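the two lines:
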Amino acid sequence: MCGIVGYLDKTGKPADALGRTVLGMLNALGCRGPDSAGVALYGNGADGQFVARVALSAKNGFDASASKVLEAASKFAPVSDSSITDCYLRFQIGGQAGIRCLIAAVESVEPGTEVVSLGRYLEIVKQVGSPENLEATYHVSGFEGTHGIGHTRLSTESRIDLSHSQPFWGHGYPDLAIAHNGHITNYHQLRRRYAQRGIRFYTENDSEIIAIYLAGQLSAGHTLEQGFDSMQRDLDGSFSCVVATGSQLGFVKDQFALKPLLYAETADFVAIATEEIALRNALPGDYEVREAQAKESRIWRK
Amino acid sequence: MAEVNCEGRSIREINFAIKSLIREGEKQITVTQPGARHNLGVAILEPAHVTIQGSAGYYCGGLADGSTVEVTGSAGWGLAESMLNGTAIVHGSAGNGAGAAIRGGAVIVHGDAAARAGVSMKGGLVLIGGNCGYMAAFMGQKGSLIVCGDAGDAFADSMYATVCYVGGKIASLGTDAVVEDPNEADIQFLDAALERYFSVEIRKTKPAGKDFRKILAGRKLWNFDKRDRKIWLEAL
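prediction for all of em together
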């Protein structure tokens, strides 16, 4: 099943912290998939610096791993504000850092080290377990920001661990994140094609291909709108998908409308979710909710 | 008029409370704070009027026989699915599969319906005030589907004897769907249905019976005939 949500504040002065809203939506969908939960939240930016979130290897202890990662990263640009919560190391690094080399250096310090997200606004937190566990471990409800997406997973085709959880970062493309409900049936074919071009896959989760696909489209200079359009042509199977960049929130639905996804837009916010129950749980007020049609996609800017 | 407040109750308790009130003779029941929960007002077999103040989730008013379930907000997937008789009214929009497999009664959606409205319907009426999505009336066996607005792709695909009417544009027709002009009886039926289920104000915004097009099965898929080989190849 899986449940996905998306939220964008249009006021600039949200009544509640972004994290609390996204988590409130996600909590209502917890019964759609208790295997793992995650959010991709977009903060207010740190003066052009990148924020990196790295899942550390547990092998030699998180503190030892964190020191190695910070040492590796600091060779690319000045590093600041580092902190460790559970298995995650978060730090800021100068925005001039070359991303692909930085990621390669950080991930090679120890096997099992993974840059979960990197961007000027984006922070991804995900873990095995329910949305409630996510709050208990990482206190995401206090996160302030502009927009975000979330995912709660019922695993159907691949392993249950942090890497296989969603949202997925568009690895290598700053600030791009996706959450997907559905099944990409030409995954293996696409994966082979990308792998031949030297693109690394971190998981065996078919949803990862969407993040890689869109990162490729955006890197090639296409807009997100164009990426959504070409998804209808290039991806087979079912996809209801929420996607965010540093400045945008959008969704796209496959041509057969096989998975649910609905949305509401008011003067104050845009909210997208698998079930309306998520919206009613987190967002009081009188507003209309609409199920997206087959092939429908929409994008909003912050 | 009795009230059932959903706050803090399981869906089982809510439906039990609705049915208990009906057993006690209550004819008008208002359900408050529904929070778009699933399975609200399912399997009501008596002619009571249940008004859900707000939005309902999946399968609202499903398996009904003779009840009226009215939703002031929107409804999720499978609205009134497999209803035998009765009425389901949604003032907002409906998710996928609105009125799927109904055998009788009427499903009225004032807003838009998403994909697969009225699929495999075996009787009754599905009336959509706005637009409908992909593959509406797929494999419809009996009954009528009226779309006042536009219809999506693969409309009326592989139908048996369901008759569809569309007031707006049709994005594309499904296999074996044939378009005709409505005859006198169709126009009367359409005008009567619109008059019965829509207020005068709302009716003003809808096409009149004579402005609809009629879509029915071309009957090419009803029996296999070698001469129709081509249509079978396209359909499968």
